[in-house]
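dumping the sequnces here before i forget
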Amino acid sequence: MSETTVYVPRDATALSLGAEDVAAAIAAEAGRRGESIRLVRNGSRGMFWIEPLVEVDVKGTRVAYGPVAGKDVARLFDAGFLAGGRHRLRLGPVEEIPYLKKQERLTFARVGVTDPLSIDDYRAHGGFRGLEKALGMAPGDVVQAVADSGLRGRGGAAFPTGIKWKTAADAPAGQKYVVCNADEGDSGTFADRMLIEGDPYCLIEGMTIAGLAVGATQGYVYLRIEYPHAQRVLEAAITQASRQGWLGGNIHGSGQSFHLHLRMAAGAYICGEETSMLESLEGKRGQIRYKPPLPAIKGLFGQPTVINNVITFASVPIILDRGAAFYAGHGAGRSRGTCTFQLAGNVKHGGLVEKAFGITLRELIDDYGGGTANGRPVRAVQVGGPLGAYIAPSQFDTALDYEAFAKIGGMIGHGGLVVFDDRVDMAAQARYAMEFCAIESCGKCTPCRIGSVRGVEVIDRIRAGIEREKNVVLLRDLCRTMLDGSLCALGGMAPFPVLSALDHFSEDFDKPPRRAAGRAARAVS
Amino acid sequence: MKVKPRTLAAPVALPPHDPGADLKPEIRDAVLDVSGRLGRLPGALLPVLHGVQQTLGYIPSESVGLIANRLNLSRAEVHGVISFYHFFRTEKPGERVIYLCRAEACQANGCAALETHAKKRLGVDYHQTTADGRYTLEPVYCLGNCACGPSLMIDGELHSRVTAKRFDRLLGIGAAAKESTS
Ligand SMILES: Cc1cc2nc3c(=O)[nH]c(=O)nc-3n(C[C@H](O)[C@H](O)[C@H](O)COP(=O)(O)O)c2cc1C
Ligand code: SF4
Ligand code: FES
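..and the predicted 3d for all of it:
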């Protein structure tokens, strides 16, 4: 009898929902019944409400079942799921699930599809084609292709990647570096994690192309310590890629070299800021450096360094493979290509949605997200992480492209959307924004270090009803000082969530704090 | 004027300085082993601190001198780095460290109540260890599991949609411990 391929994700979120039990149960049950299966531990498709999502290859079509629990497995076998049989958990061909079907998966084309650590599988799905092309091109042409694609940094600042690479390429130096920012500190984001766990060679390929383009032979990935699963996958992938000649002293027989090292962060949000990250990689406290000099000119160990986010690097292979025009053919305005949006918080259909820029918040939250998980009305969405503004439903028709979104005071950042229902206390959220800034401040400048502590106190007074109007004025004034007087975006942008809460949800500052714990208790029980 | 030739006193033989001499053997061995393996990496301090914490569960304050010595750094530099990063700790933690996410996406799913429950159940605040030495509670600001909160990580394993009941079951404490685990 021929072997049936069954996919059970090994993505951290899928595991947290019981995927390991499911995989073990499937293997055991197949053994008991004498069925011959090949169990592949793929990445996640990014539809977390149906994880653990099991897929069965039925004559070339991948049929999905989910969410599967270990105890469902025997009955799935009874129902003939290995041949795509009917069962209440059957979702049909996975690619036909509207959430996935409507997406434009360029960067995430392989995530959830392939065996993350199989180089053969990677190549069978288009992997390393971009690198092979880059190896045959002049470095300047590689930089030009990235520039022509319109790719901008996906880590937060949206800086044109081609310009950054050109600066580093033009800088004369003995040793240059490529550094990947995988610190993914923003709440509501998990795209970097999913990509590393689900398609690590894509990141390796993108970084290697960057190395060739700018003349860097050493690369570092700075990975969040909170991501042990991603750490294991990336360690294994670097070892495999080196063994098979895709990293190291002679990349794919070209005579070119690129060595990649993995470094773990240590739980400081500020180390996601690029200069702080460089300090950390050098073994120091993660304090912000003054710019200039730009890292592209004087970065790691004082040498020219290209720093990009995981998703930025992972978008490069397809740009080289399919051409700059193909990538630039997606998007809106000056935001070219796709964005890997992440639907998080209180949302019914949480997960990863890769779409061309230009989609509206409403489409993402209603059409993809399906509203809140508990069916209550959406009251606010924080976009772009802890430094991003809270957006009110009246603004949901704004298109998500960098410039259009900036016009309403928002920031797409790393593409995270955190949905809150109508029980949210926006004064409490504003307080948290200040508290987070106080906890994570690197301490270099006063408006951030002290201002954030004062911010918490002032909000506490407002919530306690002490000279409310006067303190609201004071809070706005304090925000102004932080906006104007901070060296980096932590202190310089922490006021955004605070001000947006004041502007759009002022009623929450006018009444005594609701008992957050009590309300939330009802939410979790 | 006649200058008297100066005679120098014979140097006192100082014992070779060994900043690790007073350390407990397991601490000394851990530092020497980790610094021996990782100490020559460029910017080695973070990898070395991670290595020590992984081996011992923490970075004992008294080991700072030896770490500094092995890496050719000052004690102040090493101490400064340890104290900067939330992840590094200088106190021995409980047998199991519970990392509870308290960032926005988990707030939207009610992590405040879980936090209250966890503190009450364990009888500790954040950064503290239970009296019996079994658990240490730490806040964490996002585990990359933001669509399925409240999230927590324990023993390197991630858990989703953690209710008060599930929390007790995971830890095997309280009434829920007697119920079946699923
Ligand atoms: C406080 C702060 C935290 C940041 N955190 C991250 C992060 O976790 N990941 C990331 O890629 N960029 C982060 N950034 C942005 C980086 O400084 C930098 O712009 C980015 O890594 C450059 O890569 P890109 O051009 O590909 O986006 C952060 C910036 C600030 C100010
Ligand atoms: S704004 Fe805050 S985090 Fe940024 S450099 Fe100043 S003190 Fe450091
Ligand atoms: S906010 Fe809790 S896991 Fe991301």
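Residues 515-525 of chain A have pLDDT under 50 and may be disordered.
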